[in-house]
Amino acid sequence: MRMREAHYPGLAPIEAYGNGGFRFAGMSHRGSLLIAPDGIHGWSVTSPSEINVGSLVRILEAEARPELLLLGTGADIVAVPRDLRAALSSKGIRLEVMATGAAVRTYNVLLAEKRSVGAALIAVA
């Protein structure tokens, strides 16, 4: 049996988060999420130490990139490597780092305002 990558081909507000996952578009997803202009993807990152240029390649190499990327680092705010900030900035993407809960709430507001926003959200318990 072959597993397909978790992908929702659209953008949707996050209805709930916690217990190791997220709820959006009437569905639930266990694990972290990467929200890019082409949809919502499962994201293999489980801790802030795994966040790097490689883990955000889907955002960095996309034809359509968000103007702002919200990075939800779990229960606490964590500093990100300078090379990651530089890579995003070189592509015209601003980065805001916050706890996952704050990132979810901010994402929902900006999405409702039809702003160009992406999110990388580490699941929290």
From TrEMBL:
One Pfam family of this chain = DUF498
Q: Which domain of life is it from?
A: Bacteria
**InterPro entries recorded for this chain?**
MTH938-like_sf, NDUFAF3/AAMDC
PANTHER family listed in its UniProt record: NADH DEHYDROGENASE [UBIQUINONE] 1 ALPHA SUBCOMPLEX ASSEMBLY FACTOR 3 (PTHR21192:SF2), NUCLEAR PROTEIN E3-3 (PTHR21192)
Q: This chain belongs to which protein, by name?
A: Mth938-like domain-containing protein
Q: Which organism is it from?
A: Tepidamorphus gemmatus
